[in-house]
Write a structure and sequence with these properties.
By secondary structure, the chain is an alpha+beta fold. The chain has three helices and two strands; from the N terminus they run ββααα. The chain has a domain of 53 residues. The radius of gyration is 24 Å and the shape is elongated.
């Protein structure tokens, strides 16, 4: 039979400050970031100004994933269902 024992408050532990620095191995870390998108009815709108959820897949992202099929591009997009057997035979090439 287990017996619960009261915990005693421990003295606060003060740790030294830690500085973290880093760098990007890519020349441009913004290759995947899009500021604008051509959206039907909104022309060349800023993504922050769109009244909808928009996923943008840049050319750099598609090349880095070595995508051959549309499903390769959408693989990590949460809005794309993983199991669509009726579409598997009709995928378009990128």
């Amino acid at each position: 039979m287990a017996v619960a024992s009261p915990l005693l408050a421990a003295e606060p532990l003060n740790l030294d400050a830690v500085n973290v620095t880093g760098f990007s191995e890519q020349e441009s870390a913004s290759d995947y970031r899009a500021g604008r998108a051509s959206i039907y009815g909104l022309d060349q709108a800023l993504l922050l100004d769109t009244p909808a959820s928009v996923s943008v897949f840049s050319e750099a992202l598609i090349k880095d994933r070595q995508a051959k099929l549309l499903s390769d591009v959408l693989r990590n997009d949460a809005s794309y269902p993983r199991h669509k057997p009726h579409l598997a035979k009709n995928e378009d090439w990128v």
